[in-house]
Structures are given as structure tokens and as C-alpha cells.
Amino acid sequence: MSRRRWWLLLAAALLLHAVLAASLPVSGDEAYYWDCSRHPDWSYFDQPALVIWAMVPFRAVLGETRLAVRAPAILSSLLLGVFLLGLVRRLGGGVREAAWAYAVLHLMPLFFLGSFYTSTDIAMTAAFVAAAWAAVAVAQGERRAWWGFGAAVGLGFLAKFPVVLVLPALLPVLLDPERRRDLTTPVPWAAGALSLLLTAPVWIWGAEHHWDNIAFQLAGRHHGGGPTAKYIAEFLGANLLLATPTLFVAAAAAVALALRSGDPGRRAAALAALGPFAAFGLVALRERVGAHWGGPGLVVAVALLAVTPLRWRRGAVAAGAVLGLVLSAAVVLVALAPERLAAVEWSYRGRPHRISTKKLAAAIGNREIAREAARRRAGRLVASESYTNVHLLAFLSRGTLPTRLAHVKPGKHGLASLYWYPPETLRGRDFLFVTEKPGVRPALERLFASVRDEPPIVVRKGPVTRTITVFACDGLLHPEGTFTRLEPASR
């Protein structure tokens, strides 16, 4: 594997990611990030700003398109490949092993699908790999690598906060008296100051908004109960599926061997790989965690697998390739034609409100709903209790449909827009309210001078019928808390 072929591999992956990004419909979360990018800020209620900022120049060049929305993910995947080469080289491999690792990652649905789907996770994962690379270099005696570690953690924090779970990779440095001498020099401390400086936008936004973002991360999103093994089993089971069982087990074996080795660099990489799984495994003792939250550690584990000569590695990759490619192809096909599966009754009992084929109905007919809402609104603002609907309808209209989130139902995510519009710009306004949730009208009647029923919007595609309830709401009386969390400008 020559350097030229390595770059050709990255270019081929980039092209594949771009084609899929331009072909598949945008999700509600992606539309949420897109709408955030139309309201530039230091940070946002439930997300830092790096991915959102990165979308702005792509939108300026590509317009309000799927490719522009997903360009930050495609760029992050490319950078991850570059950082992976540096990490593999530090672990004793070369271009061949790095290419092998990048190809194996694409066999895992978790990484393949995430490589062109805009999320904070893929950008954070790229920074996590860069930080692991720097930590391995520090463990091997490269003092200048502290700068890389500080920059990677700081930028990764601006993508998603769990990048800090790479910090255990520094344990071999702290436990080695020779490496610990670095701490008597200004370099690690200056790198730490750089890292903290890069995270400043998060703290600036928090100070401006009563630290709502920090309170949400520390308490708002957590609702744990008593200790249980159920959520840990879900977490590991989901990773076995999304990484494929054979590849997951092979990567875990490589991490175990690295921990037992006397090489401080490999031990640093192994601890980086274990960081997310250990932290979220502890969280899973009490509450449900995201199946993809171990992803950054899994990427580092695959880098270790690339330089670990397991006898059964080839068979593990072959078996993983079959399952991984089938799963990834199935997800792509469902995204292209969700109505074919939405009519099938299926749900996972452990998470009946999270994993169900009925959820696919929300992906059907959104463009038709946006057109009908635009036709009916007659100068009104369009609102919904669902942040998915609010931002997706705005995106599908290319920003021409003025949408607002109404926080009238319990929900903790997607509330960034409550910090965009002051109450004086909302009070007295008329709204066209669209919803698929029952029991919304009583809440609306407390907020508006009058509320009346409108004919529903009905979309039929194949065997699936989607019905949107519509209310005409006149004279918003109380926007505070529901449509906005900002204080009046007069204060």
C-alpha cells in the first residue's frame, strides 16, 4: 500500500459518502442542526457549536441542500482517516495497516452510516482519534504532542462533551516517572490552557443563559433509577449489532492484548478505547444510554486490531463484512422507501417508545406536509410541539416557512430555538399549529386568545396513511416558557 493508494482510498470513501449524503432524506436531527446554523451563536442549549458552525460555509456554497447539511460529517470522516494513519503509525504499523483499519471501519454499520450522517458524534470521534494519537506520542516520549492533545480535546469538546473520555489515555504517562517529568515543564500546562481556551464558547453561552446548557448536561437529560443489568445488556447488544459481533470481539481482544503489553503507547491507546465503554457502562447501571456512545473507543480499538496479529482476524473480518454490509444496505433501503416497512407491526419491548416500525411513518410525506402548511398559513407562523417537525418543515421549504417550536409537551432535547426569539416578537402573533400528538389543544387554549380546529392534513403513501391535526391559533398571549426562554428586551 503506497501513500498514493492511501489517498485514493480516502478519495473513494469521500465520493461514496457524498453520493449517499446527497441521495438520502435529511432526518429531524440534521434539520435541527441546519436551523441552528441559521442562528449563529456561541453555543446552543443541548449541543456545542462546532458541527453547526462548520455547516455555514457549505450552505453558502451548496445552498440549502442535503449535501450542505451533511458536509461536516463527510469532512469529519475524511479527517478521521488522516488521524487514523498517524495513530496506526505510532502503534507500529504503516500505511497498509491504516488502510486496512479504515476499510474495516466501513464494514461496521455504526461507522459507515455515521460517516455521512451529520451528528456531533462523528466530529467528536475524529477529535477523539486525534487526541488518542497525541496521547500515544506523549507516552512514547514526544513532548510536543501535548499541544496536539490539548488542541484535539478542546476542539472535540466543541463538537460533543464526551471527548473528555479520552483522558484515561494519559495514565501511562502519569504512572511512568520518566514521562511524568514532562509535567515539570510548561508545555503540558500551556497545552491545557489552550484546550480550555478552545472550549470558551460553551462557557460564554452558559453565562449568558443562566447556565442552562450545563444544567441540562449534568441533570436535565438524566433520569436514572435503581441499579439494573438490563441497560448494560442493551448497550453491549447494540454495539455487537452495530459493529458486528466478530469485529467487536476481535477489537476487544486487541485492546486486551495491548493492555497486557509493555508498550506504553499501546497501553495508552487501549485505555482510550476503553474510556467511553467504561464510563457509559457505569451510567447504564441506572439508565439507558445511546447505542453509539461507545463509537470513539471502537475506532481506536480497530486501530489496535490493525497492528495486532490475531490468527483468526481474517475470519472475523470476513464474517463481519457479510453482516455489516447487509445491515448497512438495509438501513439505506429503508431510508429511501420507509413506507414499505412502516406498515409492518414490530417493536422492541425493552424500548417500545424508541424502537418501532411505527416510527418510520414520521419519515413519510414531510415534503407534502410542508407544502400544505405553506398554502394554508395565510401570514401565520407555523408551530409544532415536535422539534423534528419544526426544523424539518423549515428545511424542506428551504427556509421560507417560518416555524416555531412550542414546548407544550414533555421533552428535553431540541430546545435551542427557545433562545432565538424574544417574547415581544411572538406576543400577539397568529399561528398554524400542526401536530400528531393527542391532548395538545388544552395547552394551546391557555396560551392563545382563541383556538379552532382546521381540516387535518392527510398524506397517503402505499399502505401508510399519516394524519396531521391542524389548529388555527389567534393572538398568542403568553409566549414565555413555551415559545421562548429569553427575557423581554425592556429588561
Class from secondary-structure proportions: alpha/beta
Name the poorly predicted regions. none
| Number of DSSP-assigned strands | 5
pLDDT average, as an integer?
91
Rg on CA atoms, Å: 24 Å
Main sheet: strands, sense, barrel: 5 strands, mixed
Q: What is the count of helical runs?
A: 22
Number of domains: 2
The rough form would be described as globular
- Widest sheet, order of strands: 2-1-3-5-4
Helical content stands at 55-70%
Distance between the termini: 65 Å
What string, H for helix and E for strand, traces the elements in order? Answer: HHHHHHHHHHHHHHHHHHHHEHEEHEE
The share of residues in extended strands comes to 5-15%
Structure in words:
There is one protein chain. Helix 2 (28-37) packs across helix 21 (387-396), helix 5 (95-107) packs across helix 17 (295-306) and helix 16 packs antiparallel against helix 17. The protein is globular. The model has no long low-confidence stretch (mean pLDDT 91). Helices cover 57% and strands 8% of the residues. The protein has helices spanning 3-23, 28-37, 50-62, 66-90, 95-107, 109-114, 120-139, 145-159, 171-175, 177-180, 186-198, 200-208, 212-220, 230-242, 245-260, 264-283, 295-306, 313-336, 339-342, 366-376, 387-396, 441-447; strands spanning 381-384, 403-405, 431-435, 448-461, 464-476. It contains 22 helices and five strands. By secondary structure, it is of the alpha/beta class.
